[in-house]
Amino acid sequence: MTGGLGVRLNGLAARALPMLLLVWLLCVFFPSRALGNLALGLSLLLFILLCVLDGESRRKVGGDPVFWAAGALFVVAYGVSVATGTLVSGWPTFYSYDGPGKALLIGVALLVMKRAPVSFRGVLAGALGLLVVLNLFQLYYFLNSPIALRPESYPMDVFYRYRNFGAMQLVLAPFLAVALFHTEKKWVRAALVAWLALNCVLLASTGFRGAWLGFLVGLGVVAGWRRLLKALPYFLMAGLALFFVAASGSGDNLFFSALRRGASDNSRIAQVWHPTLLFLRDAFWLGHGFDPLAYTRVYQEKWVDRGLGSVVMPGAHNMVLGFFFQAGLLGALAYVSLVGAVIVRLWRSWKRASVETAPVFLALLGSWLGAYGVLGQTDSVNWPCFAVLFPMTTFVLAKGGE
User: Fold this and answer.
1) Is residue 52, in this structure, part of any structural domain at all?
2) What single DSSP character describes residue 300?
3) How far apart are CA 368 and CA 390, in angstroms?
4) What burial class does residue 306 get, using C-beta atoms within 10 Å of its C-beta: 0-12 exposed, 13-18 middle, 19+ buried?
5) Is residue 60 part of a domain?
6) Does some domain include residue 357?
7) Are 341 and 69 in contact (CB under 8 A)?
8) If you count Cβ atoms within 10 Å of the first and of the last residue's Cβ in the chain, which end, N or C, has fewer?
9) Cα 223 to chain centroid, rounded
10) Is residue 317 classed as helix, strand or coil in its secondary structure?
11) From which domain of life does this come (predicted)?
12) DSSP element (H, E) containing 74
């Protein structure tokens, strides 16, 4: 009886979890704590019932390295929050509607699915729909508060909010590249080329150099260098459009400012990474907790107050160092294990996938390598990106993985 109930419950979960995932993703863009919590609660309930009643689901979860890596990160983060006394201020940040805690939980719940009725074209359409929403937000900021053209007249929080749009583009733009390089209709390809050019302009206008490189790597993974070179004229057209837009602003706009700094700006090494390595000595095993103000507080006390610097930095600007600072050595190892397990699973699944499913695995691989393999080496952890990418990845792995 239990086995039959488990099979029926698995069929119900296969139909319900994709819809709950869609609700979760929409809540990341349009924050609704109540609706997001409802989607999370139902997902976890189905996950627990499946593990209790369905033996195949238990075996699938028990043998999945992504599940264990995600669980390790979750447990370490909670333990650190308790041990360092940041449970009140730090844990809600870790567990917020756009934080990794809920993304990890809903992600591992999706790993148990066996018979999801959603097609891979549906996954592609969903990712492109989220990119449309993101581009609309970017255009709204660009046109109504032209921070990219005249950044000196806007506060730093507005600047970072605009710049971080570029990080989310790294997650979603590879799906646009997949659609572009795998379509046969000329009018669709022309429309996608124009859309890609718009994303090039919007990304460049953020002045986010790490995101520029990650964007190129993500597209390179999807297209291959041969196809990417064929698309080079379109990138040049986008660059000319960008120069035209930037020229209408002040000489200190974000794009020209980033170009002037170039790749020779080594202030991050001297002012961020070196101090962070020194801070790790004081909390090597437990870290300093997930309190969002912990880094600035430690930086002020141990660097600025000692006359070693004059400006307080907001974060470690490296995701591995960031986790090491927050959750100690175990947290850094859990984070690296999770990202590594996901990338390896996606690579293997892509190599074995059918013609229909391979492009989606390739897009996800480009997203992870661009956002975490490249940008992750020069920027702090971006939780909204993680909250979108991890559940989407586990959904695809559950439906068509190994």
Assistant:
1) no
2) I
3) 9
4) exposed
5) no
6) yes
7) yes
8) N
9) 20
10) coil
11) Bacteria
12) helix 65-83
DSSP 8-state code for residue 318 = S
3-state secondary structure of 253: coil
- Residue 351: partners with Cβ closer than 8 Å, 6 or more residues away: none
The gap from C-alpha 192 to its chain's centroid, in whole angstroms, comes to 23
φ, ψ at 121 (rounded to 5°): -65, -35
Three-state secondary structure of 129-194: HHHHHHHHHHHHHHHHCCCCCCHHHCCHHHHHHHHCHHHHHHHHHHHHHHHHHCCCCHHHHHHHHH
Yes or no: say if 273 and 322 are a contact pair by the CB < 8 Å rule. Answer: no
Going by C-alpha positions, the residue among 271, 287, 275, 272 that lies closest to residue 323 is: 287
**One pLDDT digit (tens) per residue for the chain, 402 residues:** 455 666 677 677 667 777 777 777 777 666 677 787 787 777 777 777 777 777 777 776 677 777 788 878 878 887 887 777 776 666 666 766 667 777 776 666 666 655 555 577 888 888 898 899 889 988 887 777 666 656 666 666 677 777 788 888 889 999 998 998 888 888 888 898 889 888 888 888 787 878 888 888 888 888 776 666 666 676 666 666 656 655 555 556 666 666 666 555 567 777 888 888 889 988 888 888 887 788 888 888 888 888 787 778 888 888 899 889 988 898 888 888 888 989 998 998 898 888 888 889 999 999 999 999 888 888 877 777 887 888 888 878 877 654
Q: What global pTM score does this model have?
A: 0.84
Total structural domains within the chain: 1
Measured CA distances, 97 to 19, 28, 75, 388 (Å):
17, 7, 18, 11
Longest distance between any two alpha carbons in the chain, whole Å: 72
Residue 37: its H or E element = helix 33-53
Residue 195 tokens read as: 């859309």
Residue 289 tokens, joined: 């907790």
Domain range for 358 is: 65-402
Distances (CA, A) of 305 to 95, 210, 275, 278: 32, 30, 13, 15
Whether the CA torsion 147, 152, 154, 156 is positive or negative: it is: positive
Q: Between vectors from CA 210 to CA 205 and to CA 214, what angle results, nearest 5°?
A: 100
Residues ≥6 apart with Cβ < 8 Å to 82: none
Give how far Cα 96 sits from Cα of 27, 37, 90, 162, Å: 12, 10, 10, 21
What distance in Å separates the CA atoms of residue 42 and residue 182, rounded to the nearest whole number? 36
Residues written for the chain: 402
